[in-house]
Design a protein that fits this description.
Elements: H1 6-16, E1 20-24, H2 28-41, E2 45-50, H3 51-56, H4 60-71, E3 78-85, H5 88-97, E4 101-104, H6 111-127, E5 131-136, H7 154-164, E6 168-171, H8 188-197, E7 201-204, H9 212-220, E8 225-228, H10 230-242, H11 244-250, H12 257-272
Parallel strand pairs: 1-2, 1-8, 2-3, 3-4, 4-5, 5-6, 6-7, 7-8
């Protein structure tokens, strides 16, 4: 099987009324955990690689090739996604490396510049049959001040999607990246209003730490894709601490790592599919 596009994932989400998880990769153990969770649950999944990971942790071209090799034997839809591409060059790198969808995060730009750059990337990516995710509003990091003026405007979302042609839109409705100090309060009425204005896929970033019932409500209100990384990171660190003394003796620093990450991924995948029709 070939890697699925994000449009394939969104179509599945809408047809079956589920959210599909995008889980970030930092090494092959993470990739194997996410892929195996998809095969065992029979649910689609997206393998995410943020631009900053590619710059700091691994060769994105090599990792994408390894993921494509796994996907050849897949029984489910599995996508290879560039998460938070912050630069034109970063997105072009992912396109050349064979990613099947890309995100261009222009949320730090002025609105008009975000529209201009996103539309340019959409034109190039669509010519290569690659889906594109954009971002509107300010998701930010846990600890940032979140006021309603930083949330995604439904009216602006309609204009943004119409002018850029993005296949999916990441929205800010009270969600943030990182480890929440408490339970975030999501603006579901705003999410419903955004969904009423646009027909593209909607994406919830900063998924780790959101209450289970809020995930379900967000999917009910129109979210198609949910991003998870911090929960994976915490599970991996806990696994390393648990086996640290054994690592000293056997040098097997990956012991238990795939299983620990897979457990977190599987739980989220099944939760996101709890409304499945």
């Amino acid at each position: 099987m070939n890697p699925a596009t994000m449009n394939d994932i969104i179509e599945y989400s809408k047809k079956h009324r589920v959210g599909v998880g995008m889980f970030n990769i930092v090494n092959l153990e993470f990739a194997r955990a996410i892929f195996d969770a998809s095969q065992e649950t029979g649910l689609p999944v997206m393998l995410g690689m943020p631009e900053r990971f590619i710059l700091n942790y691994f060769d994105g071209e090599v990792m994408a090739a390894a993921c494509r090799k796994m996907i050849e034997k897949s029984k489910t839809l599995v996508n290879i996604h560039l998460d938070h591409g912050k630069s034109f060059d970063g997105v072009m790198y992912a396109l050349k490396a064979g990613f099947s969808s890309v995100m261009f995060d222009g949320s730090a730009l002025s609105y008009e510049e975000n529209v201009r750059q996103t539309a340019e990337i959409v034109k190039i990516a669509h010519a290569m049959d690659v889906s594109v995710e954009g971002e509107l509003g300010y998701v930010g990091q846990v600890g940032d001040e979140m006021t309603e003026d930083r949330f995604t405007s439904p009216e602006q979302a309609e204009d943004f999607v119409g002018r850029t042609g993005v296949d999916a839109l990441a929205v800010a409705i009270g969600n943030q990246h990182g480890q929440y100090k408490g339970t975030p309060k999501l603006d579901f009425e705003r999410l419903k209003a955004i969904r009423s204005k646009v027909d593209c896929g909607l994406v919830l970033h900063g998924g780790s730490g959101i209450a289970d019932e809020d995930f379900v409500e967000a999917i009910r209100c129109g979210i198609n894709k949910v991003n998870i990384y911090t929960a994976e990171d915490l599970a991996a660190k806990a696994c390393v601490r648990e086996h640290f003394e054994e690592y000293k003796q056997y040098l097997d620093f990956t012991k238990g790592l795939t299983g620990a990450v897979k457990e977190v991924v599987t739980r989220h995948m099944q939760l996101f599919a709890s409304l499945k029709e």
